[in-house]
């Protein structure tokens, strides 16, 4: 398994109040964040994870690199939703936190949720991507909520920073799938050797945990994920029954398948955000 120190950056701008991802963008993001934490820590006992937010007035570190889920959880549930996102400065602060990791053997990674429009210009994003690549920092971007606005910028950002397929961009539109489910089957976690598509039991049923987490390690999170999955399954069954009772419509005989820059700069950024 890969040895990594990971900083997770969450978006707490005003856009996160939207309810297009149940129950809200922010809550869906928190569940996915907790899922990523458990995945990273359980994949290797030496892995550490930190948490920061980059909305409101600027980036703020909620938890330094740790293996203690309680620290992550306590910080994430005391966040106020306000202001706008600060994508570039959020990544810079996350990179600075990774630089000060105790175990220098751990590879550096940032996982950032983007649920609001990116205000920075293409030139600023290109400069940031080149700097992160130079410092051997991999970045996984989860694009949701405002994916139509951000996709082009994030595509270019990912192409620049990607080094031997170490960085990923996933776009998750609103839909029946939960945000954490889309992440679980994406390269962000699948490269760790996880497979959410096959269960541990017979018959190939869907297992909400698989080898990613031990339900006994965190019963509260395990229960929340299981209830979420059961609610989603019940909703899909209700929709299927409604479709069965709808009157049949004439359809054409043939259908077309449409599926188809240096450390001083970093320290300066950190000082500015700490004074806010």
From TrEMBL:
<comment type="similarity">
    <text>Belongs to the proteasome subunit S5A family.</text>
</comment>
<dbReference type="InterPro" id="IPR027040">
    <property type="entry name" value="PSMD4"/>
</dbReference>
<dbReference type="GO" id="GO:0036435">
    <property type="term" value="F:K48-linked polyubiquitin modification-dependent protein binding"/>
</dbReference>
<dbReference type="InterPro" id="IPR003903">
    <property type="entry name" value="UIM_dom"/>
</dbReference>
<protein>
    <recommendedName>
        <fullName>VWFA domain-containing protein</fullName>
    </recommendedName>
</protein>
<feature type="region of interest" description="Disordered">
    <location>
        <begin position="228"/>
        <end position="276"/>
    </location>
</feature>
<dbReference type="InterPro" id="IPR002035">
    <property type="entry name" value="VWF_A"/>
</dbReference>
<dbReference type="GO" id="GO:0008540">
    <property type="term" value="C:proteasome regulatory particle, base subcomplex"/>
</dbReference>
<dbReference type="Pfam" id="PF13519">
    <property type="entry name" value="VWA_2"/>
</dbReference>
<dbReference type="InterPro" id="IPR036465">
    <property type="entry name" value="vWFA_dom_sf"/>
</dbReference>
<dbReference type="GO" id="GO:0005634">
    <property type="term" value="C:nucleus"/>
</dbReference>
<keyword id="KW-0647">Proteasome</keyword>
<dbReference type="GO" id="GO:0005829">
    <property type="term" value="C:cytosol"/>
</dbReference>
<feature type="domain" description="VWFA">
    <location>
        <begin position="5"/>
        <end position="188"/>
    </location>
</feature>
<dbReference type="GO" id="GO:0043161">
    <property type="term" value="P:proteasome-mediated ubiquitin-dependent protein catabolic process"/>
</dbReference>
